[in-house]
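Section 5: illustrative case.
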């Protein structure tokens, strides 16, 4: 396995699990400015720490954000996403009253859907080939 700094250890496991998340604002409204995105990153970084996860990368535009999260296997991606979206929506709407005017009826900052993609490690073709070779008789 080598000395890869991306490999983490838990009590009973060694892991390197990354997920690419994309959250879109409700109705795809373009509401974020740089100050919103900076605060959003801080909030999401703190939420990740609560899950013993690491927010490796964050970026966004006026109507969506991208996250790269390194997380332990005990964390369900859906729970992490619900917490990231819920906490950030609540805090951003509290701290930036200008966001509320876009969402006065829905009281939600984020769309109900999201993108989650697994990333990292070897390409799938290499992993598939490796697994296929494990079953060969000696």
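Designed sequence:
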């Amino acid at each position: 396995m080598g000395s890869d700094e991306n490999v983490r250890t838990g009590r009973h496991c060694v892991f390197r699990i990354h997920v690419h998340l994309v959250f879109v604002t409700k109705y795809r409204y373009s509401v974020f400015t740089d100050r919103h995105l900076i605060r959003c990153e801080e909030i999401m970084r703190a939420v990740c720490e609560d899950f013993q996860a690491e927010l490796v990368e964050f970026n966004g535009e006026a109507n969506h954000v991208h996250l790269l999260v390194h997380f332990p296997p005990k964390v369900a991606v859906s729970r992490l996403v619900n917490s990231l979206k819920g906490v950030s929506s609540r805090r951003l709407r509290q701290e930036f009253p200008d966001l509320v005017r876009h969402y006065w009826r829905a009281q939600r900052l984020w769309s109900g859907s999201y993108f989650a993609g697994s990333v990292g490690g070897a390409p799938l073709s290499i992993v598939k080939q490796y697994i296929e070779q494990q079953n060969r008789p000696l």
